[in-house]
Design a protein that fits this description.
2 helices, alpha+beta, 94 residues, 5 strands, globular, Ubiquitin-like (UB roll), 5-stranded mixed sheet
Length: 94
Amino acid sequence: MSSPTITIEIPTPLRSFTDDQATVEVEGATVDEALDDLVARYPDLKSNLYTEDGELRQFVNIYAGDDDIRYLDGTDTALEDGTALSIVPSIAGG
């Protein structure tokens, strides 16, 4: 059985790492698997999304549909075919 196909919405500041694509289709049964597939295809994205310890950066928010994965199962959140993930960088204000 193949993994679900997931669409990841890439924010404008990161599109230079995805050949200016606004969305990228990846495969993954969980958020972690989908992001792994994304950085396997676009390795330069990894340092923007993950710390050197392999943890998702604190200022990177991931939404599965309208739900912030931090309030679900984090990167272990299960995904269904056709789920849209959004990468939303935090904006610091002042």
